[in-house]
Design goal:
The complex is a heterodimer of chains A (765) and B (306). Helices cover 9% and strands 53% of the residues of chain A. By secondary structure, chain A is mostly beta strands. Chain A has 2 domains: 102 residues, Phage tail protein beta-alpha-beta fold; 629 residues, Maltoporin, Chain A, CATH 2.40.170.20. The termini of chain A are far apart. With 306 residues, chain B is mainly beta. Chain B folds into 2 domains: 90 residues, Sandwich (Immunoglobulin-like); 159 residues, no CATH class. The chains are: A mainly beta (765), B mainly beta (306). At the A-B interface, strand 38, strand 39, strand 40, strand 41 and strand 44 of A face helix 1, strand 1, strand 3 and helix 2 of B.
Chain lengths: 765, 306
């Protein structure tokens, strides 16, 4: 017995830290206390549902001085039945077994203070299923942080190209051909302001910086009455306002570009700012290389390309009911190749001042004054000869939102735009130009009505007019949408909408070169119009499976095609003669199946569609549109591996695009002589089917200071399928026994995009 | 293991910057045989049309090119007219008939076994309106001409002109030699220039001559200006020029315009441009069936180039 007491006394003496450890554990033995310790040491705040109890004993204590933040979190929450996610300076806690949480929620922190007791969640769930609109998709900024990003730079338009019903056009370019559209009939908005040129590097990158993007609302049909001006789609990009309480940002270096984003308070809880910058690196390589070549060859060789853009937002809260914000976007591209004195430059400058005001509990106002300017310059062969085009808008827009009762949500508003279109040509001091100015007033009213518990409808009408030289066009565009709730897990939507487009892109080719310019409707060039009826069934099935099936039929009138003859640059003084008007129609069925849990997300999209054109000026019957891709399949999978790694895989397939070739041959005159060939109809040859596999990885770490770093590795076209960028009909000699005359024709395709690996490093601070 | 990293990275980098050309099968492109009609109908001249069978290019030289059980129908102002048909080279059939005149509405229908019936219509235009012409040499030494004409403002009209030159050469100890020929646009006229004011006429080779084509929609002041090139000779004693003035049917104008576009449009035939160059007024077939009228001015002496 004495020996036992001696041993215990010695142990106690030898291990005094045990006392402290035990005492510490007694004092900080709840999860809440451990959270306080982490908050004090790492500067993080915790966000969790109030139903989660944190006043429970913690099995283990963290030692901040010896552990990283991740290790502390694992120590405290590892066996607690809770999961944690790091979002900058916030740790989000959820229950491990909570399968009710959908993966498409967005969390707005309405009230944040530097304490763990006062955080409020507001979540918008499944917006795209609970709306009356058909063809609607909301993409939030979380979606851009997945493993997929083209050349390690997430891109808005590349993400939209994966949607069903959307054709991407030429490989790698930022074309958006929505349900038979022609690419120039999409309304792109940055914070409600139209933007004309949406691409950098001939379409490799879009003009939208995902670092500052809060959400993207994408409409393919069922357009609400508040939108108008384009035929086929609305891409409404909203940028984030800055954090009102803390400074933070991110820095990213990729293979082709670098990005910097920084936000924070100007006056805490009153005024904030958010800035995003982006610049390409290519000139860092091409300029020194050009210098070396110039020195070696003694000529004027110079090859340069660069793009840069910036986004800036300043928001001031006068009160919860009155918020003023200023948004600015500027982007510029320029390319030079001095061998042929080729020089291109183009860019946008957009600014807006917005005032959001809550007039009463049921009445809200949003007023905006803005300008938008796009300009492009092009010269070739001689620096004394140059083409410039400018398109600029000044606008005033007011939108009201009124909820007179539980069953009605009325939106109404008006806008006025002044457009200036000014393409011109300079040569030896002389100018040839065609300047047009138009005014475009519009007004709308729509009402979302909860008719019964199972029936919701949105009916509206939009009026727009364009006052152009010598002519005024008035248009009334009805909009209607209906949602039937079939049961708790299924709904059906129907919609009908008409859209009018009063300005037109004058382009001689499909390459989205800055040589195209915009012009308004005139006495000879009428406004274009689309009519679309759509319907869909939306199901939420067990095990988190969602199935959407949507069909549509769409017609377009007074759409334009380039007549030809002129080369790269359409004629300024004869542009009306250079365009011909025709019609389009398209129909199809789009199917989406998706499944997700906390770690894995699977999506499958299939589109079966037809798209046709009728331009009697050059062909008397309907013919296939060049993007009449009969089948389109997109399969994507995202998986979180542990807490630090995400992997993405996406497979894209669509039936080949169509080109026009001289497809018909006469009998050749002699053996060995080529036959005379003719065209049969437009878009008469289908190219090989398009398919590619993209893979992406995100490796996340938390630095010692609690910042998040991400290494992204992306592989575009992982199995190197050379999809054609351009193709033509080739001729070759063929002296096989089947061939009497010794020649044959083959399709020749040129693919430029093999496997493209890329990487980027991002630090969020 | 480390030794293979470097070449692997190099291969990866090289593959990421290379492109490639490859052939693909065109046989499943949905192409089918069709009838080809070729007919330029000159007002007040004997009518002729050539009919052929065309096949998808991948069958050229491998398939029988004769039309099976062909039948032809030619109508003028809704009434069937008599035609004569005969075989022509390269598996074709020729059709001829009496002359047609200004205002006649013509329709041809061709059918054959196993092929869609082809049909085309055109209207014979009236003669070139009242006109005058002048020639001059501009400050850059180009031969130029102006055609003044009285255009009908109530209709859209289509015109063309061919420039025929006559050069008299007097060599020593020989009789004067007169050489005539048709002029073409000056060399170097830049059809794809970015300069909107660059001289870039729509020109098409029409038989043995080049014709300059325009419509009154493009030319509101009733004067067409053109530049032309003549061959240079020594010992020239006299030069003269006359103009063949065409009035084209709409179908002919559109067809020649499309031909010009398909030749000079850098984005045509690659799938990167509007398919406007495919124009043909032969429904369910290909080719052209179009009418025109032509008048000729008197010879006008011109200043000789130095």
């Amino acid at each position: 017995m004495k020996l036992l007491f001696k041993a215990a006394f010695i142990l106690l003496l030898l291990f005094p830290p045990t006392y402290e450890a035990l005492a510490r554990n007694d004092r900080s033995n709840t999860i809440k206390e451990q959270m306080k310790v982490m908050h004090e040491h790492f500067g993080v705040n915790f966000i969790y549902d109030s139903s989660i109890s944190v006043d429970v004993p913690s099995e283990k204590a963290c030692s901040p001085g010896k552990m990283s933040l991740e290790e502390c979190l694992e120590t405290v929450f590892g066996n607690s039945g809770l999961e944690w996610e790091i979002h900058r300076k916030y740790i989000v806690l959820t229950r491990k077994d909570d399968r009710r949480r959908p993966d498409d929620y967005t969390i707005f922190i309405e009230e944040q203070k530097d304490t763990i007791d006062e955080c409020i969640f507001t979540a918008l769930t499944a917006r795209d299923r609970n709306t009356t609109q058909t063809g609607f998709k909301r993409i939030d900024r979380k979606s851009f942080d997945t493993g997929y990003s083209l050349l390690s730079s997430p891109d808005v338009i590349k993400t939209l190209q994966q949607q069903p019903g959307v054709a991407g056009g030429t490989e790698l370019l930022s074309g958006l051909y929505v349900r038979g559209g022609d690419g120039a009939d999409n309304l792109y908005l940055i914070d409600g302001v139209p933007i004309y040129q949406t691409s950098h590097l001939l379409g490799l990158f879009s003009s939208f910086n995902t670092d500052v993007t809060e959400s993207v609302d994408f409409y393919k049909s069922g357009f609400p009455a508040r939108y108008g001006g384009r035929l086929s789609s609305v891409v409404d990009v909203r940028t984030r306002e800055g954090d009102f309480n803390e400074y933070h940002g991110s820095f990213s270096i990729g293979l082709l570009d670098g990005r910097l984003q920084f936000e924070g308070p100007v006056v805490k809880e009153k005024t904030s700012f958010n800035i995003g910058l982006r610049r390409s690196w290519m000139d860092a390589i091409t300029e020194p290389a050009s210098l070396i070549i110039r020195k070696i060859n003694g000529n004027e060789f110079r090859l340069r390309y660069a793009f840069r853009d910036f986004n800036a937002n300043v928001t001031h809260r006068f009160s919860d009911a009155s918020i003023l914000s200023f948004n600015l976007y500027g982007g510029k591209d320029d390319a030079k190749y001095n061998r042929t004195a080729l020089s291109l430059d183009w860019g946008n400058l957009i600014g807006s001042l917005d005032w959001d005001c809550r007039l009463s509990d049921i009445h809200e106002l949003e007023t905006k004054v803005y300008f938008s300017r796009y300009d492009a310059g092009f010269s070739a062969g001689s620096t004394l000869s140059r083409n410039i085009s400018e398109t600029s808008d000044l606008g005033l827009k007011t939108d009201f939102s009124l909820r007179p009762g539980k069953r009605h949500h009325i939106r109404y508003g008006a806008s006025f735009q002044h457009h200036t279109y000014h393409p011109r040509h300079y040569k030896e001091g002389k100018v040839m130009s065609d300047m047009r100015q138009t005014m475009e007033p519009s007004a709308y009213v729509e009402d979302e009505i909860i008719v019964t518990e199972d029936i919701t409808t949105n009916v509206g009408v939009r009026y727009s007019a364009i006052v152009t030289k010598g002519k005024t066009y008035h248009d009334v565009q009805p909009r209607a949408a209906l949602r039937f709730r079939l049961n708790d897990n299924a709904s059906m939507n129907l919609s009908y909408s008409e859209m009018v487009q009063n300005d037109h892109q004058i382009a001689s080719n499909y390459l989205q070169l800055p040589t195209s310019f915009w012009m308004p409707s005139t006495e000879r060039i009428l406004p274009s119009r689309s009519r679309q009826a759509a319907g869909g069934l939306y199901f939420s099935l067990p095990h988190n499976v969602r199935v959407n099936v949507e069909g549509y039929f769409k017609t377009m009138d007074n759409i334009l095609e380039f007549r030809g003859k002129w080369g790269i640059y359409p004629p300024i003084h004869l542009w009306e003669d250079a365009m011909v008007a025709g019609k389009g129609r398209s129909w199809g069925v789009e199917t989406e199946v998706s499944w997700s849990d906390e770690k894995t997300s699977l999506n499958a999209f299939y589109t079966l569609s037809w798209s046709q054109r009728l331009f009697e000026d050059f062909y008397p019957d309907w013919y296939r549109d060049r993007n009449d891709n009969r089948h389109k399949i997109t399969l994507t999978a995202t998986r979180k591996i542990g807490r630090r790694c995400e992997v993405y895989a996406g497979w894209n397939f669509h039936s080949g695009n169509l080109i026009t070739v001289e497809s018909q041959a006469l009998a050749p005159e002699d053996i060995g002589s080529w036959p005379e060939t003719f065209y049969s109809k437009p878009n008469n040859l289908k190219l090989p089917d398009y398919h590619r596999l993209d893979i992406g990885f995100n490796f996340r770490r938390t630095t010692v200071r609690g910042n998040e770093s991400i290494w992204n590795l992306s592989i575009y076209n992982a199995y190197c399928h050379m999809n054609p960028i351009l193709a033509y009909l080739g001729e070759q000699y063929d002296f096989t026994k089947d061939n009497l005359y010794g020649f044959s024709f083959v399709g020749e395709a040129f693919g430029m995009i093999p496997v493209l690996p890329s990487f980027s490093y991002t630090l969020k601070f | 293991m480390r030794a293979i990293y470097k070449p692997l990275i190099l291969i990866l980098l090289l593959s990421s910057v290379s492109g490639c050309r490859y052939s693909f099968d065109i046989e499943d492109g949905g192409l089918e045989p069709c009838i080809c009609v070729m007919s330029y109908i000159c007002a007040d001249s004997l009518f002729s049309a050539d009919i052929y069978k065309t096949v998808p290019v991948y069958l050229a030289g491998k398939e029988d090119m004769d039309l099976v059980s062909p039948s032809y129908s030619l109508k003028c102002n809704g009434k069937e007219v008599e035609t004569a048909s005969f075989g022509i080279a390269d598996h074709g059939t020729g059709i001829s008939s009496a002359a047609f005149h200004a205002g006649d509405e013509l329709e041809i229908t061709v059918s054959a076994e196993g092929m869609e019936t082809a049909r085309a219509t055109t209207t014979v235009p009236g003669s070139f309106p009242e006109h005058s012409a002048e020639t001059y040499v501009d400050e850059k030494g180009n031969n130029c001409a102006r055609i003044h004409y009285k255009d009908d403002k109530n209709s859209v009209d289509y015109y063309a002109v061919a420039v025929e030159t006559s050069i008299t050469i007097q060599n020593e100890d020989s009789a004067p030699l007169i050489t005539t020929g048709f002029a073409m646009p000056p060399s170097g006229h830049n059809v794809t220039s970015i300069d909107p004011s660059a001289y870039s006429p729509v020109v098409h080779q029409f038989g043995d001559r080049y014709i300059f084509i325009w419509s009154d929609e493009e030319n509101e002041d009733d004067t067409y200006e053109l530049k032309y090139l003549t061959n240079r000779y020594s010992n020239v004693t006299e030069t003269a020029v006359r103009f063949h003035l065409y009035r084209l049917s709409e179908e002919m104008y559109r067809y020649l315009y499309a031909q010009y576009d398909s030749i000079y449009n850098p984005f045509a035939n690659m799938g990167l441009s509007s398919p406007a160059f495919t124009y043909s007024n032969v429904m369910n077939g290909t080719g052209w069936f179009c009418a025109y009228s032509v008048v000729c001015t008197d010879w006008m002496k011109t200043d000789m180039e130095e």
